[in-house]
């Protein structure tokens, strides 16, 4: 039984899920990261160790849940949300609650045991991005879902329980609070300035250059002005678009190249550095966003979120983004 409860003071929703607690990692606190081979459920040949696949790019003539794939998408074995049932939003006294309905999928990025996405060839990363898009378009057809978040946890400190390169996707029946905040801020900026804040950020960063990492005709990557974390990086499409799923073929190719560069420069700063990345796009049922602009945020996990950050919502970053950009560019 999974429940979504609204925190009455902040309006944040919390997923109360006992299923998730069964994950070996949290349950025993033991090292569950495996070396690959026999026991790794994401390695080719071990398809029976995962729930049946939802989607794959695979060689012609090969059957689902057998070898012969390049990218494989499966339900998370310990899902944060359940895919079956109705939302049944209701009140419990002063509290708001609904059933924990959603989708939780794993995108396995390679059949061989590779530990990080930057080890993969650019063509393979393009397939990963195309798989993100395919899954997003498919899940958007389900009217119960309001948001689809694609993210990556790399390394234990970033929340991964397996070190075979993979990303995840969670479809939620509510728009996450931090996305709502970005939407609100972007709308306010648009109403006042009659332009998209993200397009204007691209313009200013390109002029100043001091935080810019890599760019091509389609994307700009940079360390954001008020980076919350050391070596935080953002990747923005240059073409104004609020919806990730509208990415075109030439943009998929560019994004694969820039993402590979960003992640590999990060691991040259510190090998095996845990990190997260997340794609922020507009909610499923808000197609009108002339003011929102999808993007990818990379959050290295060099620091832990501590008391001050929890209590104040302020971040302390000991590496200025200008310095971070210089260092990352040298390594890239
Ligand atoms: Zn593996
Ligand atoms: Zn824009
Ligand atoms: Zn964002």
List keywords for this structure.
alpha+beta, four-stranded antiparallel beta sheet, 14 strands, globular, binds zinc ion
Radius of gyration, in angstroms, nearest whole number:
20 Å
Structural class of the secondary elements? Answer: alpha+beta
Instruction: Write the element-wise H/E pattern from the N-terminal end onward.
Output: EEHHEEEEEHEEHHEEEHEEHH
Approximate helicity band:
25-40%
Strands, count: 14
Give the overall silhouette. globular
How many strands, what sense, and barrel or not for the largest sheet? 10 strands, antiparallel
Query: Looking at the chains present, what oligomeric state does this protein adopt?
Result: single chain
State mean pLDDT (0 to 100 scale): 92
- Name the bound molecules: zinc ion
Low-pLDDT sequence parts: 26-34
Termini separation (Å)? 46 Å
Q: Please give the count of helices.
A: 8
Please indicate the percent range of residues in DSSP E strands (runs of 2 or more): 15-25%
- Strand numbers in spatial order across the main sheet: 3-4-7-9-8-13-14-12-11-10
């Amino acid at each position: 039984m999974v429940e979504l409860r609204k925190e009455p003071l902040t309006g944040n929703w919390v997923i109360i899920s006992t299923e998730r607690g069964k994950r070996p990692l949290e349950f025993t606190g033991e090292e569950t990261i495996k070396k690959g081979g026999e026991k790794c459920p994401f390695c080719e040949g071990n398809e029976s160790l995962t729930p049946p696949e939802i989607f794959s790019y695979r060689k012609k003539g090969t059957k689902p849940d057998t070898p012969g794939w390049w990218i494989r998408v499966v339900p998370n074995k310990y899902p944060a949300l359940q895919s079956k049932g109705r939302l049944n939003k209701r009140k419990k006294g002063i509290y708001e609650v609904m059933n924990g309905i959603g989708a939780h999928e794993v995108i396995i990025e390679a059949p061989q045991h590779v530990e990080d996405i930057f080890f993969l060839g650019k063509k393979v990363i393009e397939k990963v991005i195309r798989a993100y898009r395919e899954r997003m378009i498919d899940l958007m057809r389900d009217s119960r879902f309001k948001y689809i978040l694609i993210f990556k946890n790399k390394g234990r400190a970033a929340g991964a329980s397996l070190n075979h390169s993979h990303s995840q996707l969670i479809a939620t029946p509510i728009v996450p609070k931090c996305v709502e905040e970005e939407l609100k801020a972007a709308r306010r900026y648009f109403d006042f300035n009659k332009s998209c804040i993200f397009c204007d950020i691209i313009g200013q960063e390109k002029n100043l250059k001091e935080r810019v990492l890599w760019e091509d005709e389609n994307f700009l990557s940079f360390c954001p002005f008020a980076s919350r974390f050391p070596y935080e990086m953002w990747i923005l499409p240059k073409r104004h678009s609020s919806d990730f799923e509208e990415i075109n073929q030439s943009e998929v190719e560019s994004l694969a190249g820039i993402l590979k560069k960003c992640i590999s420069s990060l691991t040259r700063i510190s090998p095996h550095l845990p990190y997260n990345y997340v794609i922020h796009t507009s909610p499923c049922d808000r197609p009108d966003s002339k003011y929102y602009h999808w993007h990818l945020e990379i959050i290295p996990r060099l620091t832990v979120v501590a008391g001050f950050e929890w209590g104040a919502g302020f971040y302390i970053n000991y590496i200025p983004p200008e310095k971070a950009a210089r260092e990352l560019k040298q390594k890239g």
